Request: fold
Amino acid sequence: MILGINHVALSVPDFDKAAEFYCTHLGFEKVFETGWERTDEDIPSQILEVKGTSARVGHLKQANLLIELFEFISPDVEAQDPNRPVVNHGYTHICFAVTDIQTEYKRLCKAGVRFHHEPLEVAPNVFSAYGRDPFGNVIEIEEAIGREIPFAPPIAG
Reply:
């Protein structure tokens, strides 16, 4: 039986910068950090289907979301296009529920988040703004008027 989402994983070029961004600006807390050294015959090589990996890895938590960060040291990795269009195949974004989108939008702009647009009403009583973390991963902030828990739909009014 599937119980629900456990975590979202991101590969980033700088673990410390990513952890600082998500903890300082989005309210996450670092749970742990570990890693592994390069070897061709190990569990990470089997799981990832890539030989010779080494990485730093850690978990960041918030009330209802766990983010797993990977900074791969080897093998050489391709840099992500920080302007990768959201419509390209693959993960498109992580959405964070907020209670005051205008305040959060302004705060995150001051923190250096590059938003695609100002908050927009995307459905009745639902406001959204898409932006990017320091590496180009797309994040969304969303306020649903009347929503009581972060992952629930807004209450019909």
The beta strands are 8-11, 29-39, 53-62, 65-74, 94-97, 114-115, 120-123, 126-132, 138-144. The chain has a mean pLDDT of 85.
